[in-house]
Amino acid sequence: MKKIAVFISDKGTGSNLDAIIEAIHKKKIRNGKIVVVVSNKKDALGLNIAKKAGIQTIIRDLSEYKRKGKSRNEYDDDLGKFVKKKFQPDLIVLAGWMLILSGNFIKYFPNRIMNLHPGLLPDGDEDFVTLRDGKKIKAIRGLHTDAAVQYAIDHHFPVTGSTVHFITEKVDQGPVIIRSEVRIMADDTVGRLYERMKKEEHNILPKAINLFCEGKIGDKNGDDGKMKILIIGSGGREHALAWRFSQSKKVSKIFCAPGNPGTKKIAQNVEISSSDIDGLLRFAKKEKIDLTFVGPEAPLIAGIADLFQKNDLKIIGPRKNAAAIEGSKVFAKKLMLKYKIPTGEFAIFDDYKYAREFLKTQKYPLVIKAEGQCFGKGVAVCKNSLEAQSFLKDVMVRKIFGDEGKRVLVEEYLCGQEISFMVVTDGFNFVSLLPSQDHKKINDKDKGPNTGGMGAYAPVPFLHKKLLKRIEKDIVRPTIEALRKEGCLYEGILYPGLILTDEGPKVLEFNCRFGDPETQPLMMLLKNDLMEICQAILAKKVKNLKLAWQKGAAVCVVLSSKGYPGKYRKGDVVKGLDSADLDNHLSVFHSGTKEEKGKILTNSGRVLGVTGKGSNLAKAMKLTYGNIGKKVIHFSGMHYRKDIGLKGLEESLWE
Ligand code: GAR
Asked: Does ligand 1 have an atom closer than 6 angstroms to the CB of 453?
């Protein structure tokens, strides 16, 4: 049970003290009790509340101190020493304490003094706060109670609110625990606005105290400070992420929901589907997960980040309004049009008849896309009008993708190399990952139908520095800024799928998460601790994030089941997993396997991603392909492309 000392003063009403007492009573604060209430004056209203609840109180009046000729420093020192010795509190909560406490007090309780501040404070020491919608307002520091509320009104802030934070010696600074925003109405008075703010305070202060009492924040009292991670998803991407997290010194335990037989070796799989976001929330709360990493797009588009954040759980991935950049192709296209982000020409249709007529007037080839998420299948490159009319009918009349095909986009067909360009962003700054190249078609030389991705390699040798800078300047930065301006602050991994046309790089589509299979080679080459990247996103410190990569290249070749991407076979035994050359140059990431009686069986279209690295692309390909085949990794009906990485080799020859 954590011991809490609450500090109040004669300037407050004691309502937050009351809220803490009630939260303890209602078990909203589960592992804490108040051992003392400290006040600066004997007539502070909160003292009556404390006495009524049977809590011991003490008064330390600064003016009496000064009368005796003692200094402010002595006051702070005596107060800290006394409270520590007599009550040994684990946590000091300043709930309306109006004196600024100096280092002479703080030294007795490092990282254990929480303050409630009636204004919004930033995560760092900047002078502005980033609101949830991405807009910025000035931080209100050095003012208390009504004065802070008055300031927000006088300066026409759209929003104000309260912040719970750990204190440092700098006034109203230090790590933020929870912030709550309160919208300011045109006819607000200080009284009316403050009343709404207080309501929020009575919610966030007990919440912050509970986080401390449960050991989730602050000085962890002997805890090793390592974190419990939950990875959502079950593919090769998630296996690769789990593998990298398992190498982090900052991670104590990894859960994968639902995971696969590959992740089972390095994490604990839990049987919750990635679409069951309420179930995932319940699990994260129960297990006290410190950080959740979302692999696939569907839960992000459904709003898992919003839900977790509302419940004070840390999560990596954009909120629903920003994930729409992948969820709605129309949203993405309109955004690009408005902010002049280079992309192919397009037209949007809700009406089948208009679309049908339009297709009669177009040049071919062209591209038709169903608006919603169709698991990579809602896109067709149509060579002629006949093909276009037939696909349009499938989508809008026969509704083969259901409601996802209510709207279609007809797009210009663009020619060139396709590139996966992923960046880490906190909504303001970004760092680019190594560019990579996916292979969507089932067969060599990009022949046959589309798949989820048959292999990838990184880096892309022909994407030289100048081009990379151009992509960052013309595409990535304007997209992140556009989203922010639209009130959709984007935090997480942003992945524009690009095409390098003769006119320059253009966006084919946006994804709101890591690519699969591109993540597999990237994780092989990344030197940084993955946790460091997550922490930079959460703390909005991507500006200071430096990524380091191993020299050379990595290649992931996907092994697929017979028949994929059509109807495919399941249940074939995967052989050679033990005999593969597994060392730190080769990893086999599972994506569609299951384990039965100690054997690994094929269980989906894309089964495994054999991923190797080498000092150059050719060597990485040699190692990877050398581990696929009859004497090494194989299964009956196994299919794979033999040319993953070849474009990198060929293109770089004439670059
Ligand atoms: C709270 O609104 C808190 O934000 C503010 O004092 C009030 C105490 O209210 N704190 C500060 O101004 C600190 N600078 P209460 O006595 O009704 O709980």
From this structure: no
